[in-house]
Every structure is written in C-alpha cells, then in structure tokens.
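Page 47, continued from p. 46.
Same chain as before, 468 aa.
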Amino acid sequence: MQGAERSPGEDPASVGAFLGAASEVAARLLEASAVHVLCHFDGDGLCSGGLLLGALHRANVPVQVSAIQGLTSGTIERIRKTTPPLVVTTDVGSGQLDRLERLHTPVIVLDHHVPEGEGGPWLTHLNPRLFDLDGTFGACGTTIAFLVTLAMSEDNWGALPTALAGIVADRQHLGGARGLNGVVVEQARERKLVRCLQGIPLRGETVDRALKEGIDPFVRRLHGDAVAVEALLQEVGLDPMAHLDSLSQQQHSMLSSRLCLELLEQGADAAILADAVTEQWFFPAGGSAHDLSAALDACGRLGRPSVGLAAAVGDRGALAAAMRLSDTRRGAIAAALRPIVGGALRTSAGCYVVEVPESGIAGAVAALTLMFLVHPDRPVLAVAPDGDRLKLSLRGSRAQIARGLDLHRAMGLAVAEVGGSGGGHPIAAGGRVPPGSLERALTAIDREVCTQLRLEAQGTPAASPSGS
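Result:
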C-alpha cells in the first residue's frame, strides 16, 4: 500500500517501525555469506550502492555491486544465472516486485518509488511508503541504505558525505530536509559532522566560478559573463576567489538574496525560489554535498558508474575523475539550456516541451527549465534520443503536486499507450518510447496532466523569461 506524503515531519511511531525494519535488514546483511547489490545508475543509486558496498566491505561480507538502468528481463536473467545467495536492490525494485521473484533467491528491496506488484515469500521490501512515510520528499534510496548501514554499525557515520550527496542528487534537499532525511541531518548536526548554511546552494570551489559556470541556479545574466559576475560580487562585498565553504552565514545570505533578485527579474517563480533557498551542507574535511552529488550523478549519466561507486567509498583518484566528469556534464547542460533561454520550447496542453541532444542530461534540463526559465503552471517534458528509442523526462514542482499532479501515473499511461516503459514519482518520472510515437505519448501525458491540474486542454504561449 502506498503511503501518504507528509511534510515536514513524520509520525514518530511510523519512523520507529521503519527503523526497526531497517535493523532487521541490517542483521540479515551481516549474516549473509555474500551479497550482490543492484543499484540504479543515477546519483541516488550510486550513493546508495556505494554506502552498501563500503559497509559490507567493512563488515567483511563479500559483496558485488552492479549499477543498472532498470530491472529489465535481461538483467534479471543475467543475475539469476550467477545464483547469488542474497540480492539487494537499492533505488530500484519497488516497481518490479513481481519480476524480482524470477530470481528464485532471497531479495531485499531498498527503495522509495511507488510500489507495484506484491512480490512473494523470497522478497523483503523496505520502502518508507509501506510505513505511511514520505517517499517523494522525505526519503530516497540513499536515505534508506544509509539507515540500514547505521543499524549495521555506528562506524558508518563516516560515510555521511555520500549519504547527503544522495539526498541532493534526488533533489530532496529543496525546501529543507524532512521526513527520514530530516532524521539523518539532525543527528549529523548533533554529532558535528556537517556545517549547514542557509541560502541558495552553489556548486564550485570559488564564488566566482560558482556564479560564472553555475547552472543550478541558472542565472541568465551571470552565466558565462565574467564582467557581470565581478560587478555583482563587488556589490555584495565578496572576494571572487573566496571559497564557498569559507563564507559566513551572513555572507551566504547576502549573496543568496542578490541571486534571488536576479532570478525573479528573469521570470523565475517566487514559490519555487522559496524551496530553492535551503541548507547547503559542508563537511569538516572539506567539500560539500552538492559538489559530491553532481560528481557522482555525472558518473552514472556519462556511463562511468564504476568511477562513481569508487568515489562514493572514498577513493581520491576516482573522486578527482568524477569531478572532471561533473565539469563535462555541467557544460553540456549549460549548452542545452541556452537555446531554451532563446525561446526554443513549445507549450502543449499540459506541458512545456524541450528538445535535448543527450539522454543523460534530459532530467536535469527539465528540472532547471521548470525552476528558472518558465512560469511553472505545468510540468516540463524533456525529449532526447536514447539509442533506438526516445527518452522522456518529466519534472514537476511541489506546488503542482499540491494541486494534484502525479507524473508517475501520467508517464505510466503514456508509455503503456505507445509500447514503451517508464515510471517514477509524482514529482518526477521518466520513460523510453519507440521513435515516431512522441506525439501520441505527449497526447496521453497532456490528457492526464490536464485532468490532474485542471488545465484547459489547449496549448498556450510559453511564459519564458527570454520574452519569447
């Protein structure tokens, strides 16, 4: 049964029941003769897979981790032939419970997606939704994996940077940590394992680079313009070469306030900006959850998940390589956003639709477009080539969720109609459809979104800050 979404806190009895179940899963992992972990290939999946890899290795439990795009029939068959004594899926599995039964071996699912199917006696399912906890904003795959590893050993608090990076990768930091995420962050603060600054989180080593090269937030006037960035920093009295982690709360607040004004002037929605002003998490040893999140997510999106897993468990060489991949991906996303700023988007009955050249950046482009480049009266659909298929990435906002948006349902109906595959969350969903089926899929998405949001079933001019 799918749990109701709660914000910002959770029922203590439900949290206690979930933590008790996490302890039971931890005990099984510690007793296992060997474990094969299947994690999703994105930032949340790699962080959760890395947490389990590190914890099981420290507990001397033989472990293998495979990053996958999904639990396809081919993946199931390959794993079944290896006959692992225990399979753990993380950030994937809840939507394929019946398919996992084909493994004919014990399976533990650690996931926060909407459950589909029943599973069977071989399967243990740890999902916050089953405890009436928030699985959309309050817990991701990384959160669940981290709580399980803490039940294995308190020593696993040392992996907190990876845990918080996973929360950021799933964009659950927006609006502040809540639910099970809030449990983790509050305990980390009490242990003095994290320094929190309130404001708009920025990525990059120095303030100058964060503004000039940054895409989240995407400030049109500042991006790539060294003169404009220098003038703004002089205005707020900040050294361009100052490291982000050296800023005081007052300095961070001043900079965030000025960026909010820039974003409002370019047409960003005030309610979305209110969510964007949140905590940024810095670590005593250096670095931030936001930088680590971008690096690990880039590894998965650019086809280098093994680098991401190594970085997630603390390999410095892998982390340096991941940071370079992050720079490459950031550049590709920025290049895809520029045409949208120039008006390269269309408005269907239920969505803003943008075309993206690479499938690996589709979700990011959709999310950033929604946050900073359009009036968010409807979700954004990014379309990109993906091998012999088309990748569809749908992104919505918290305000749209409050109005009744459910992108998991909308995407599910669309891909079913055209013979594709996909799903996700109420606020974010993805799918793959055959070439030539885009307009039929879009019609199905439009029909459902219009019903959910009570939009008139016709397209309207795009409300873009480009003025187009």
